[in-house]
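Sat 14:20. Reprocessing the chain from the morning session after the first attempt stalled halfway. Input below, unchanged.
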Amino acid sequence: MTTPFFLSADVLDPVGPAARSSVITTFLVFIGMCLLWVFTLASQDERPESLHTAGRSLPPVFNGFALAGEYITVVTLFAASGAVALFGYDGFASAVDSVVALGVLLLLARRIRDSGRYTLGGLFSLRAPGNGVHGAAAVVTLAIAVPLLMVQLRAAGISVALLIGMPSDTAQVTCTVLMGCLVTCFAAVADLRGTSYVQAVKVPVTLLTLAVLTLLALRKFDWNPGGLLDAAVAQSIAPGGYLRRGLWAHTAGLGPLNTISDHLVMVLGMAMMPHLILRVAASRSGEAARRSTSIAAGLTTLFYLLLITTGFAAAAVVGSGRIGTVDPNGQAAPILLASGILGHETTTRVVLITVVACAAFLAALTAVTSMTFTAAVSLTRDALTRSRHPIIASGEMRALRSAIVILCVVGLSLSAVFHGYPVEFLVMFSLGVAATCVFPALIYTFFWPGFNRRGLLWSVYGGLLLCIILTVSSPTVSGTAYALWPEARFDWYPLHTTGLVSVPAAFLLGWLGSRRPAARTIRGFRGASHEAPRR
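Finished this time. Tokens:
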């Protein structure tokens, strides 16, 4: 997966000067309605448990739609379809990983819900109690959330700037800051129940938008999917290799090993995102958690099928050459498709572009809010309330709101500062941390009675250190044309993601640490299945 990098873009104005005011006005009205709805949904219940998990009262079908909405982010909306448009088979293969990830989450959903915990600190402490464990969970959550916040805010600002026909760097940074301020207002009053409604609404809106783009593209080829695919291949940058592995630069060099590592990080990382674990834990029961995850898997499958079709449609209608000229990573593909699929003077075209802009805003709004809310819950629940001087419920809620604002400000500041840099590796870094530090710990927690505090800390901190070292030493940071610092050369680690090394190493560290018995008796999983209520 890559993130939007429009900085080398040619001038792109998909709207045109005649319709720009109408699109901007409609878009602003939509933003205002969304914010009004969010404030209306804001909970008046100041009990921490109620705000964090919606009282564990979300119906399975509704929570399944909301869980599917968690997978629809502004990065996936533009990156997955763009990757297919430019790189064909390689982009298609990366999109499939997200669906497989829900299968992994489905295997653990019942156990997560039945544990009675909903933060990483709570889950980690099932076999390894202690403040150090909760602190490790808070560190891991921040290591996952902050890079993703930065990338999502940056992607949202850039995509909105392009959609309203203002592609300059200044306009993109301005839109990033404005979008960040709007999202901060949303997140500051959010709770799980309110965000669930917006997530659930986002799913049909996004699916309908992608379906319309797909149908309009098929109409241009007389409703012949084969004709559309043939045109995509013919207009690709490499017709001979478009439907074969290897067109994406990340598969060069140690191709098979890179591919295995990428798939491992994508599947395990997307399954172990803290905001997804929180939503599964908010289900009514273990059976409801499994049902919600199954529904989300079906909806997410449909979403990615439409994304893949949209990518091929963009290549067929616009051409991979033009898409690559505008954006070397292909993230302008949906925008160019919406702009070029209809006549340039039609009202329907303006409506279609506006709808794409609104879908992008919804995706950014909900994705950033979910990540920020979960990270803030982890900070307050796993760090502040576990300190030597625990805070009371009302103080915890004030700390939660403050943490949300601080996290949004940090993410927004980093987005603006690094606007001119290719930071696509941060997405894979966050996924790598989730795959390395969360998946082995939960597998050991649920399935190995001998897992203890020392083993967990070795696995989590050792895995995190490996992720940092290997990422910094990889071709995504130095030594290649698409690296953060292409002129520097310290890329001694040849793979683009850490999973092939860091995930097995985290399992090994957890086993080695647990083989050395702790000084005190570690309580078992069954005896720690529920926390005592905090008053």
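The two ends are 44 Å apart (CA to CA).
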